[in-house]
Amino acid sequence: MAEAVDYKYVGSRPVRPDGADKVTGRAQYGADINLPNQIYGRILRSTVAHARIKSIDTSAAEAMDGVFAVVTGADFPVGEHGEIGGEGGGDVADVAQNVMARDKVYYHGHAVAAVAARSQSIADAALAAIKVEYEKLPLVLNVLDAMKDDSPLLNAQCFTKGLAEKPTKPSNIANVMTLARGNLDEGFAAADVIHESEHVVPMSHQGYIEPHACTATVNEDGRATVWLCTQGHFDTRAQTAKILGKSLADLRFIATEIGGGFGGKTVVYLEPVAVKLAEKSGRPVKMAMTREEVFRATGPTSGSVARIKVGAKKDGTITAAQAWIAMEAGAFAGAPIGPGAMAIFAPYKLEHFKVETFDVLVNKPKVAAYRAPGAPQTMHCMEVALNEIAIKLGMDPIDLRLKNAAEEGTQAPYGPKFPVIGFKECLEAAKKHPNYTRPVPAGAGRGVAAGFWFNVGMQSSAEVYVNDDGTVNVVEGSPDIGGSRASMCIMAAETLGVPYDRVRAMVGDTDTTGFCNVTGGSRTTFATGMAVIQACEDIIAQCKQRAAATWGIDADQVDWKDGQVVPKPGINAELKPLTLAQLAAKAARTGGPIAGRASLNAQGAGPSFAVNIADLAVDRETGKVDVLAFTCIQDAGTAIHPSYVEGQYQGGAAQGLGWALNEEYIFNKDGIMENAGFLDYRVPVASDLPMIDTVIIEVPNPSHPYGVRGVGETGIVAPLATCTNAMRDAVGFLIPDLPLSPPRVLAAIDAHG
Q1: Of 117, 242, 525, 631, whose CB is crowded by the most CB atoms within 10 A?
Q2: Helix, strand or coil for residue 680?
Q3: Residue 80's pLDDT is what?
Q4: 618-665 per-position pLDDT tens digit
Q5: 438: in domain
């Protein structure tokens, strides 16, 4: 581990700069934008889950007073195949068809037409006047059924990618991915104990509180401006441009405040439709989804079926591991099989392993990212298998993991060798934690599991401007979801050596700041923060040049220390230091305004590991589960703002607990979601959860100036298996499938007598 560094501002806990506006209601979210002459857009959605569209009659809607525009798939360009980059991307044709159906609908709630009207009530009446004739088609809702040769085919143009040989016939299996090393037969032959099991993890939603919303206007030159709640306005602009066949220069996207995203707001749903309606009507168009629409028509995460086999020696050494995992893509390709395959075995040293993952089409909404997409589902089966191995060996489950833990130099299953990582430190902290050493409460069970996310870098830009009085403005293009504006200010203050309260940060739109990829993948503090740091270093270099010119010495004879330029030791002791404020006040005479800029493709995102501990109490007469204690231990590299890091740990745990214990999409035989609302789709509320304890482990990432590792993804990975393992301890047998809801738990208890 690197030596501890004393920072002045990094590691502090200032109040978040956007906090006052949010708690007082001044902050503007997606649905808060209102423009003169604004009209309202609404979408007509399919009433069947799989059908050919025989006809759409919009004449009655178009004739209604107060209706300004009606669009269908025929109003959009023919979708060409090709990739849209970014976390919410995919095949252009698929994303376009998901936004507005063409010849077929692929899931209940699929958009088939849209209207824009003077009021929402008129818009709803216009939707009711549109007549759609469907020819129903066979549907498939089960991922294993969809993989069968005789399954109903969703897309005749879908040929499986990733196979050794190019397929000759279409399939519901869109993609396959295999990672392997060593010899499985040899590995399992060396095992003293072997565990095998199958696990089902349901499709679940991110559960963000703010529904999708946007407002679009198009001027006489055809240039559109869109206000939207998004995790990445540059990426959603790119998606919209591809879908509409427009130039990026003709689209200006402005990110509003965002009421949660967790990966689900990296995808376009309303934006291309709003632009098309605004273009056709000549008026600004505002669109907002209902809560029901969010559930039925936006991207949840994949449900999965996983089969796991793990072997180990008597001393706990894992000899081999094998996994087969089928993941639901929804109606279009895009299940997170790659990240899932990369994550499943990542925390461990494995000589022999194989993981096969499958991206499978079913008649459900197209999935979207959800916080470490793919990792919770795949790591659930592995972490449960390790718990079962520990039980068979009579070994402490943390000791088993320590025996096999990856460390610096371990080759990751997906290729590279790990740099400095903090997995062992997390395990050691977990073993010593009071929530692990104290006795298990009577009638409860305790479980542990590990989590992992590799994190990403990607592209970011930042500009830093010094005002005449020495205050600093940071402009960057990463929407602030978890407090990133405060983190940017902290890193700018630390780098420049100026007080935190003299730095302000803002999220620029696509016209006012340089390109930034989506706020996702736990990249923002790492990558955009690195851009801010480099922009500040640009300012420091300029200040040294200006001071040198003022003093009549060379720039290499000048240092920057504590927010001011000083001559290096031995250089003219009579020269007085110049603060940033003094330099800014004289900027007009030394070259003009002081501004720093940086754009980069950040490399070296440090992998993040976590260990969770849970105590669950189970009511054997009702199946009800109470979470008595939950502990999150995770490596943050360096916690720039510890309060926000802890909040990420707790938020990930809360979402993971919801997924583990209650949350699931429930479809009837016709493919209609039966619990499309928070009344029936049961997310945890405050009364369901204990105080979630957190431990921040800091093993600095050597690839970042301040040692940052992303922390937003890893927190959701381990809770699923942690709960399954705690349930195993509580009831004495394994309940392999999720969620561990009262009906499933009670049925399992009854079946075991």
Answers
A1: 525
A2: coil
A3: 64
A4: 999 999 999 999 999 999 999 999 999 999 999 999 999 999 999 999
A5: yes
CB 21 within 8 A of CB 490: no
Q: Are residues 449 and 481 in the same domain?
A: no
The token pair that represents 421 in the structure block = 């990582």
Do 655 and 451 form a contact (C-beta atoms < 8 A)?
no
Query: Are residues 445 and 544 located together in one domain of the fold?
Result: no
DSSP 277: H
Rounded to whole angstroms, how far apart are CA atoms 554 and 546? 10
Q: DSSP strand E in 5-62: where?
A: 39-45, 51-57
Instruction: Assess contact for 99 and 75: CB atoms under 8 A.
Output: no
Shared-domain flag, residues 218 and 91:
yes
pLDDT level of residue 2 (50, 70, 90 thresholds): very low
Which residue carries 């305004």 as its tokens? Answer: 593
Nearest to residue 628, comparing CAs of 640, 609, 614, 638?
614
Measured CA to CA, the distance from residue 650 to residue 608 in angstroms comes to 16
Flag whether 167 is in a domain.
no
Rounded to whole angstroms, the Cα distance separating 655 from 683 reads 8
Q: What is the pLDDT of residues 434-471, one digit of tens each?
A: 999 999 999 999 999 999 999 999 999 999 999 999 99
Instruction: Calculate ∠ Cα 13-16-22, nearest 5°.
Output: 150
pLDDT at 1 > cutoff 50: no
Q: Which helix (H) or strand (E) holds 620?
A: none
User: Is residue 547 one of the residues assigned to a domain?
Assistant: yes
pLDDT at position 89 is: 62
Quick check: helix, strand or coil at residue 418?
Answer: coil
Distance of CA 745 to the CA centre of its chain: 30
Q: 10 Å Cβ neighbour count for 590?
A: 16
CA distance to 403, 431, 554, per residue, from 537 (Å) = 43, 42, 18
Strands 625-635 and 193-201 turn out to be unpaired
Q: DSSP states of 507-535 as a string?
A: E--TTTS-----S-TT-IIIIIHHHHHHH
pLDDT at 116 over 50: yes
* Residue 474 dihedral angles phi and psi, to the nearest 5°: -105, 130
In-domain check, residue 148: no
- pTM higher than 0.90 for the full model? yes
Count of domains observed in the chain: 3
